[in-house]
Design goal:
Elements (H helix, E strand, L loop, with lengths): L1 E6 H16 L6 H15 L4 E7 L6 H4 L11 H4 L2 H11 L2 E5 L4 H13 L6 E5 L14 E5 L4 E3 L1 H8 L6 H8 L14 H11 L12 H14 L23 H8 L2 H14 L1
Parallel strand pairs: 1-2, 1-4, 2-3, 4-5
Antiparallel strand pairs: 5-6
Helix pairs in contact: 1-2, 2-5, 2-12, 8-9, 8-10
Amino acid sequence: MIVHLIDGTYELFRHFYGIRRFKKTDPPYGAVTGLLRMVAKMIEDDATHIGVATDHVIESFRNDLWPEYKTGAGIEPALLAQFHPLEEALLAMGVAVWPMIDYEADDALASAAHLAAQDERVEKVCIWTPDKDLSQCVVAERVVQIDRRSGVIRDADGVRAKFGVSPAHIPDYLALVGDAADGYPGIPGLGPKTAATLINRHGHIEDFPPGTLNAHHTQHALLFKDLATLRTDAPLFDDVEELRWTGATPAFVSMAEKIGDATLLKRVQVLQNRQQ
């Protein structure tokens, strides 16, 4: 089996701004509908095991570690209002969904990938997101990252080609170069090439020889690495079969009516009949 893990927060943003770009409107459930249609298409294309990670709240334990870490400030109300309805709609559709509170959606994806990859029945784990944080979860050709926009499938060699370091060193890399989207700046004067060179020469930041970075920069680099390191211990499921899509719940009829997508309801009903 192939396990498909979807970054629900990223896809919600993508669909929201995609609709606005082409229609100049913000339908109340437009982004939710877009993501559900995407999942339906994956099932139509024979995906059997699917899980979606979401940020039930934007803040996480990382905000306690670094006050400048990303928050929900600035997210448009029309987008923010679709976060919880998305979770409700996925549940009604019968799709495994993990709404994260203390952890982030990225941690859920990392945890799910870790759990699924340990199962011998799983041939491949596909993480559907372009987020560079998730590159640390890539394992050879078994756990891969897929960018839906570009169609790029990134295995371990692909991660090295893009960033100049192995997947296991992505947290070190991000700690040194920073991640503006997540709100930490990295180490002054260290660009991508220099960071990759240091990592390939010395390994993890903890193994850098004394004097490679000054004491202040080392302290910050280790903190930023902690921020960049995805947690893999979220207890999301006991058996990968819990991710198998077996059909929508009865609640999906009213949910499809609520979001205003009768066509999606018909598609899901066809897929349910195919399951029988």
